[in-house]
Amino acid sequence: MKKVLYISTLILLIISFYSCNQVKNPSVEETIAREVWTAQEANDWYVQHQWLRGSNFIPSSAINQLEMWQEDTFDAETIDRELGFAGSIGFNSMRVYLHHLAWQIDPDGFKNRINDYLEIADNHGISTMFVIFDDCWNPTYEAGMQPEPKPGIHNSGWLRDPGDSIYINPNMITNLESYVKDILTTFGDDKRIVLWDLYNEPGNSGYGNKSMPLLEKVFTWGREVNPSQPLSSGVWSWNLKEISEFQLANSDVITYHNYGSAENHQSMIDTLRTLTEKPLICTEYMARTRNSTFQNTMPILKSENIGAYNWGLVAGKTNTIYAWDTPITDGSEPSVWFHDIFRKDGTPYSKEEVELIRSLTGKSN
Fold first, then answer.
1. Could you give the 3-state DSSP secondary structure of residue 5?
2. Segments of 164-235 assigned E as strands
3. What is the C-alpha separation between 56 and 284, in angstroms, rounded?
4. How far apart, in whole angstroms, are the C-alpha atoms of residue 225 and residue 223?
5. What's the first-to-final CA gap in the chain, in angstroms?
6. pLDDT tens digit string along 91-122?
7. Does the residue 17 lie in any domain?
8. Domain residues for 312?
9. Pairing of strands 280-284, 93-97
């Protein structure tokens, strides 16, 4: 009997010792990712905001995200002046791209510059939607001085993020996770930020479903951090069925791109309304030579209570006055601008457009 009691006591001690060590071991603790917002939660958030209207913004002095955010070329003066142009026509929000390499080479400096940008924008009454990853344009990148624009070539220096690097060096995923979580943790309760656009046009540049693993991971990382702002990724190509379905199922509010005519845009809105009861925000539109204009599209977005972010504010080094597929190699000005609203001195490309925008935003001259 004593032997049985001894063995039983020994077993209990071993179990107790093992359990205590498990509790004290932080390596077994797991971060729980929150659920995707319900339609009710999304709509409760949306009604707290005025009609969101603005542009995709990069200062005219920057050719790409690195030139915007690196210490030597962060141009607060130009940012301040050009966001003033935006405020003058009643815009109240901007969509702005980040780049992980700017964080990697200088995390604290990068975050300080983000804060500086947010302070400037807020002073103009402008909120910010930040974009984390991007599958568009140039596949590789380097820190330091960025190239000069190629004459007449649309977005000749724009950078993907992470681009081809993730396929060349899959181990960089650890660094990308640290980047995303650091930015979302640092600014996750910042009232100046309206939304996190986690991945711009995943699957573009021929990547297709190769982009799915990173798209899935960035949503998981975002929900683990659980910022107060919503998380989203814009539907942009119905041909990428798996990616589009994932974006719709995992976005807290629904964002999308449309560069088609008014009829095409309305059709996309109608389709999205059948797929979701969540608020809609158009994060890219307005390509004049493709019949996506302020005149025929912005009134629809206002009447439908859909957030409206056109591509481009001030014509500059990104060369987005030139169309995607129509280069003008001598660099002369196109007869019809593809994107953008203002010249560098604040003169509008079209006074009629600016008058329309002011009428829709309620901004007097």
1. helix
2. 193-200, 231-232
3. 7
4. 5
5. 96
6. 999 999 999 999 999 999 999 999 999 999 99
7. no
8. 51-361
9. unpaired
One DSSP character per residue, 103-169 reads HHH-HHHHHHHHHHHHHHHHHTT-EEEEEEEE-SSBS---SSSPPPPPTT-TTTT-B-BSTTHHHH-
Ordered DSSP codes for 270-316: HHHHHH--S-EEEEE--BGGGTB-HHHHHHHHHHTT-EEEEE-SB--
Average pLDDT, the chain: 93
CB 53, CB 90: distance < 8 Å: yes
Residue 62 domain-assigned (yes or no): yes
> Which residues, other chains included, contact 82 with Cβ-Cβ below 8 Å and sequence gap of 6+?
57, 59, 60, 313, 314, 342
* Predicted model pTM: 0.92
Main-chain phi, psi angles of 207, to 5 degrees: -70, -35
- Cis omega (within 30 of 0) on the bond before 162? yes
> Would you call 231 helix, strand, or coil by DSSP?
strand
Q: In whole angstroms, what is the distance from residue 340 CA to residue 56 CA?
A: 9
**For the residues of 149-162, what is the DSSP string, one character each?**
PPTT-TTTT-B-BS
> Please, are residues 134 and 55 in contact by the beta-carbon 8 Å criterion?
no
Residue indicated by tokens 């939660």:
41
- pLDDT category at 364 given cuts 50, 70, 90 is confident
At residue 197, the pLDDT reads 99
CA atoms within 13 A on the CB side of 361: 24
Residue 1 lies in a domain: no
Residue 343 lies inside a defined structural domain of this protein: yes
Alpha-carbon dihedral 65, 69, 71, 76, rounded to 10 degrees? 120
How far, in Å, CA of 214 to CA of 191, rounded?
27
Query: Into how many domains does the chain fold?
Result: 1
Q: Are 97 and 200 in contact (CB under 8 A)?
A: yes
The answer to whether 97 touches 65, Cβ cutoff 8 Å, is yes
Using CA atoms, how far residue 4 sits from 1, 7, 17, in Å, is 5, 5, 20
What CATH number does the domain containing 311 carry? Answer: 3.20.20.80
Annotate 62-82 with b (16+ C-beta within 10 A) or e (fewer): bbbbbbbbbeebbeeebbbbb
